[in-house]
Amino acid sequence: MQLAVLDLAGTTMADDGLVLAGLRAGLRAAGVRVDGPCYPALDRQARATMDRPVMTVLGELLDGDMYRARRAHSAFADHLHAALDAGRVRPVPGAAQTLDALRDAGLSVALTCGFDPELRDRLVSALGFAERADMVLSPADVDGRGLPEPDLLHAAARRAGTGPTQVAVAGDATADIDAAVRAGAGLAVGVRGGAHGEPRLRAAGADAVIDSVADLPALLGLPS
C-alpha cells in the first residue's frame, strides 16, 4: 500500500452522536418537528445514509427541497462549529498514532469527509490532524461527488501519484466501503463502533473489519 484513505467522523474523529445531533438541528431549522410522527422514519434514514455528503443527505430527508436543505445545512454547520468552540470534538483514541505510523512507514495519508471545507478544516485542526495528513478532501474538491461515489478516492490517489490498487481505505460506514470497492481500492477496511455494524460493512464488501482505526497499522503489518 502507498496511500491510506481514512474517514473522518466516526473513524478518526469520535462521533459521540455529534453528526446525528447536527442533522436533527438542521431538520428543526427546516421546520421538521423532531417529536412529530414523521421523525422516526427520518431518523432511520439519516442513520442509514451517514458519511455521505451532508447536503445530499439533507436534500433527501427533505424530499428534494433544496431551499430548506440549504437552511438545514447552515444549522448543521452551526451546530458543529458550536461543538468545536465548546471543545467537544476529540479524536478516536489512537487515531493520531495511527496517522503517524502510516506516514512513518512511507504511506501517504488522506482524510475524507462529507463536510464543507470550512468546517472540515476546523475539525482537522482541532483534532491535531493537520500536520499528520498529506491531504484532506471533501465533496467540494470533486464537484460535489462525495461518498459512495469513488471520486474522492480517485482524487486522493492522483494526488499521491499512485493507482487505486495501492490504496487502503478505512471507514465506519457502508459508503466508505462502497466507494472503495467502486474505486478498485486494494484494501477496504470496515471500522466497528461507528455509523454501521460489522454485518453491513461485510455485506458492502469490506475485506476486513477492525475494532478501531488504531488497529489499522497492525492489519497492514506496520509497527504501531
TrEMBL record:
MF terms in GO: hydrolase activity
Keyword Hydrolase annotated: yes
InterPro entries associated with the record: HAD-like_hydrolase_sf, HAD-like_sf, HAD_sf
Keyword match Hydrolase: yes
UniProt keyword list: Hydrolase
Protein name: HAD family hydrolase
